[in-house]
Amino acid sequence: MAGNIDSLKSHAIIPARRGSKRLPGKNMRELAGKPLIQWTIEAAQQSRAIGTVIVTSDDPAVLSLALELGVDAVIDRPFELATDTAKTSAVIMHAIHFIKAQGVHPNTLCLLQATSPLRTANDIDDAHDLYVASKAPAVISVCQLDHPIAWCGALDESLSMRDFAEKIREEKLSQDHEKHYRLNGAIYIARYDAFIRMNGFLSNETLAYIMSREHSIDIDEEMDFKLSQLMLDKYA
Questions:
Q1: Out of 8, 28, 31, 141, which could bridge 186 as a Cys pair, Cβ 3.0 to 4.6 Å?
Q2: Residue 13 confidence class, pLDDT cut points 50, 70, 90
């Protein structure tokens, strides 16, 4: 562990695990002229809502880059928190212990995943403004689904579309459908005490911050990477 933690407003925690089955080394892979994780680090640094930026990783290359970019602290994540089965809440708790070991009691936590390169500093600020104005214990970013939820269904081994048929019979025409949203993985904000109480960010008290679909690309496979490249080239 290394860095300098100050008692400032919100603590942004950026986790970046080395292992990735679909896209090995994706956090350091170049995207529109920068390593993927750099987009998130810079968004956090440019946000007026963030006081401290912390990167936690088991990848020495990620930690080295983070320090070069001037983050406030890096955490060399232990092996047991860098596996496929490690829970994000456990990674956040590990970061919290590090923050408190510096003599700082965190007030607000902001999880920013490195796989959301189109999430901007303005998105972070707007989500934080909602969090402050609403006095909600937590805020999570979402985006609208690009198709009616009735078009989704479960398939068993028989490949029968029974589930689809039942849902579509019950639903109105798509233009009359109620809007539905999904978690987009970009921004998670919570009061420290609420995070401890809820063991995470999501509860019945959590509010949604709605982001555009353009800013909601979550890089999980090659197609996501290529789409992000196209979008960032468009904004350049």
A1: 141
A2: very high
